[in-house]
Amino acid sequence: MDGFDQTVNVKVIIATNQANTLDPVLLRPGRLDRKIEVPLPNRQQKRLVFQVCTAKMNLGDEVDLEDYESRPDKIGAAEVS
């Protein structure tokens, strides 16, 4: 990638939820040539994220985390937290 000295061990990590919109130039060999897919969380994983994010919060009685866990919405952990 432009601007990086080849003798330095530099790792670049990017994240997107729209990989299909990335410029193909970025995906050429020697650039961003490894892809790691992080799938959407299942119900149990959502529960764990909610537990971690709300552990130190005083939630009101009207907050029903089980309702959020069971929703079929396609949301990632960032939206959950």
From TrEMBL:
Q: Which SUPFAM superfamilies match?
A: P-loop containing nucleoside triphosphate hydrolases
Q: Does the keyword Metal-binding apply?
A: no
Keywords, alphabetical = ATP-binding, Nucleotide-binding
Q: GO molecular function, one example?
A: ATP hydrolysis activity
Query: Is the keyword Plastid assigned to this protein?
Result: no
Q: Which Pfam families match?
A: AAA
All residue ranges annotated as the ATPase AAA-type core domain in the record: 1-40
Its recorded name reads: ATPase AAA-type core domain-containing protein
* Species whose genome carries this gene: Rhododendron simsii (Sims's rhododendron)
